[in-house]
Amino acid sequence: MRRFAALALMCCLCQAVHGKDKKLPSGEAFDGFVLVKASVLDAAELKQIFGSDFNNNFAVLEVTLTSKSDKPIEIHLDDFLLRSEQTGTHSEPFAASQIAGSGTLVVHQVEQPHSKGGFSGGLGGIMMGDGGMPQGQAAEGNSEIKNSDKRDPMLDLLMRKILAEKTTKETVSGLLFFPLDKEKPKNLTLVYTTPEGKLRVRFK
Q1: Between the CA of residue 154 and those of 14, 86, 97, what are the distances in Å?
Q2: Cα–Cα distance, 172 to 196 (Å, whole number)
Q3: Predicted confidence pLDDT, tens digits, the chain (204 residues)
């Protein structure tokens, strides 16, 4: 029994060390102005940070910026772009309020009449963040949209974790959420625009 317990403890320790040393797909690029390092977080990392993997709807990067000159870095989210080299799709990162906002849209699909030889289905309880649709406006398919006043507790956490827009000479780190799902890290390229041009970070 003691041998079994010791073996089980060793296995647990090995798993813990292996998980801690797990290497995420990473890359870096630099010019005379800034060094940018980035890693692609997986579902396990997201669940550890947020308690959710966001249904794998985002490619999430952890980005670190370090100044390479005596000039401060002006950080703007729209200076970043993530591109899929496989599909050609690309996107700028989302702000926290676009992922989880205080006004959550709840879409209830209105059931359509049955047609001969066919069927109809409805979507119920679909949750989505603010998407720019005016309150009360119906979506396609005669959907009803309601705006909830209840604040999403995820919003504050996202605001703390997402890369902050600011001007600084210090090394800064944060997360970027790109609405590119089901993309393999090896197919992704992060493009970051600096005063000296465009830096491209590929992941391996």
Answers
A1: 33, 32, 10
A2: 19
A3: 555 444 444 555 444 444 445 789 999 999 999 999 999 999 999 999 999 999 999 999 999 999 999 999 999 999 999 999 999 999 999 999 999 854 433 333 334 444 444 434 443 333 444 444 444 444 444 434 445 556 778 999 999 999 999 999 999 999 999 999 889 999 999 999 999 999 999 999
Single-letter amino acid, residue 74: E
- 145, 106, 108: which is closest to 123 by C-alpha? 108
Helix intervals (H) in the chain = 2-20, 43-50, 96-99, 154-161
- In order of 131, 169, 185, 187, the CA distances from 43 in angstroms are 24, 32, 13, 17
C-alpha span between 176 and 159 (Å, rounded) = 11
